[in-house]
Design a protein that fits this description.
- The chain folds into 2 domains: 82 residues, Arc Repressor Mutant, subunit A (Orthogonal Bundle), CATH 1.10.10; 75 residues, no CATH class.
- The chain has 8 helices and 4 strands, in the order H-H-H-E-E-H-H-H-H-H-E-E.
- Strands 1-2 form a two-stranded antiparallel ribbon. It has a two-stranded antiparallel ribbon with strand order 3-4.
- The mean pLDDT is 90.
Length: 173
């Protein structure tokens, strides 16, 4: 099961809740008490969709309680842990791609940029920038940074030296 970064944060918060509170019912508000990341508006907005997906996959159950509509059994928690182990966020995939292709771009400080995407007050700004300006070069042969792509090939047309050769690919979704 593929999870985006916000879905993974919600699922991690559900797992944390279950670890701390057993099979006690929970809501989005309750998850804020076990996960600071759940206070982020994007994660809150993703909560309902994530919970519908987890319900459909039978990784959580309905509690019948209006204020705390979800619950997680021990068996479901073990299954959720397995799903979380198998799923990767785009940031984790980017780190793997840096290992494969980062050497083609010696002027880019990949370690620092990934660190800024993962933590800090400006991480959301860095994440958005990285996904537009760096991630395409790691995932596609047609995206160039300083005139080179991930295979080390020179851009056949210039200017510009950076960006897509041909039709852009949407890497944000």
């Amino acid at each position: 099961m593929d999870l985006d970064i916000h879905q993974k944060i919600c699922a991690e918060a559900v797992k944390s809740w279950s670890t701390q509170h057993g099979d006690e019912p929970f809501s989005c508000h309750a998850l804020e008490s076990v996960s600071l990341d759940m206070k982020n508006k994007k994660n809150k907005a993703s909560f309902k969709d994530t919970m519908e997906m987890l319900l459909a996959e039978e990784l959580v159950s309905s509690s019948g309680n209006g204020k705390k509509p979800y619950k997680l059994s021990n068996k479901q928690r073990m299954l959720l842990v397995e799903v979380l182990k198998e799923s990767k966020t785009w940031l984790e995939e980017a780190a793997e791609a840096v290992q494969l292709y980062g050497h083609q771009f010696p002027d880019v400080n990949w370690e620092l940029e990934l660190k800024k995407c993962a933590a800090g007050k400006q991480r959301h700004v860095w994440m958005n920038w990285f996904r537009r300006a760096r991630l395409p070069a790691l995932l596609h042969d047609r995206f160039y940074i300083d005139g080179k792509n991930r295979k080390g090939n020179q851009k056949p047309t210039s200017p510009p030296h950076c960006g897509w050769e041909g039709t852009p690919v949407d890497v944000l979704n």
